[in-house]
What we know:
Helix content is about 80%, strand content about 0%.
Amino acid sequence: MVLSKPELRVGLLLAVAMFLSGVTAASTYPYSSVVAIEFLGMSGPLYSVVIAVSSIVGATLSGIFGYFSDRLRDRRLMALFSAFAGCVGYGMIYVFRNTTAFTVATCLITPAAMSLFSQNFAYARAYYQMSGSERADLAVSMLRSVFATAWIVVPPLAGYLAAVASPFDVYLMTAVAYVACGAVIVFMMRDRATAVRPPKASAQQAAEQRTAPIPVVFGLFGILLMTVAMRLVGTAMPLVIVAEMGGSVGDVGLYAGLAAACEVPFMILWAYLGLRIPRTIIIFANGLLLCLYLVVASGLTSVQALLWLQPLNGLAMAALLTTTISYTQDAIKGRVGLSSSLIDILGVAASLLGAVIFGVVSAIAQYRVAITISGAVAALGGLAVLLTEYGPALLRRPPDVPDPRHADER
């Protein structure tokens, strides 16, 4: 598969933009609660409300941005606006360093920056679809691996910066990353040949673009279930390590870093296997693999045994973090921007549902029970995706074909 020079140039710039997008998320995510509660004096319940409001506003804005990005002369304008919002919001927290600035920025400004991730992917898919849908899936998977790489590289750097200076300086790091990402987008927009304009749709196509077919909606429900499982694991596993395996906070960091490091090479592997294996099969198989990993992990008693199990975790998570993006982007025909916004919406819904499940389970059982439940939810989600592809065919009975040996009996 040979890429043209413009495709190589755009691919390189998109890789830089996705890495910077990963920097914006990976640098502040571990320190948000610390800054709000320990340094600004917010109460735990108030912080929870602020985060919940931020998630809901972010999901709403992501849907709005996705809707309009499919109608703009250049869909990168929405990604550029998201980068600007991120710079302003996180810059405000760094400069003012008070509860009011944190609340306003987190609830009203930084949610608009959430769309940078999905809109960059929307542009990448739309651009590479001009060269064939298979190449688009491969490009999306490769870019997701670049995003994941930032989660390996950035947290140690952000932790060092927070330790030697101040956690607020991490917000400056994030704001600068948004500025740099915006600069990359502007640089790409200078080349008019790389603009992807929405194609003119017929009346029938326009009707199809308004909604996703019922089977696809059921498939998206499966993606939601698997995302809930991943969010629930992200909440419960650190607590299992510390409270039930006798590990330390350092072990949590080692677990997270090793898991992310295992995901990147497998993302590249699944990107190429996706050229030969249907997406629904990949998602279903890795839903089962994630279930297997979580069921085994829930019965472990040592951190070392859990660390040895991370290649299996990385294999499954790599597919579910990449292939599900391509699946979601095809949800609404001809509306890659709006479909891509579903990535953010499903992520927010999964976080809220995962928090509810964790709250109920942790109140009545050990944290490792939540891990077991996550495995069941992941398998159920994979099955739902598989049934959207093959279920209708299985339900349709083939017409009766008369046996020619009995033709004379009629």
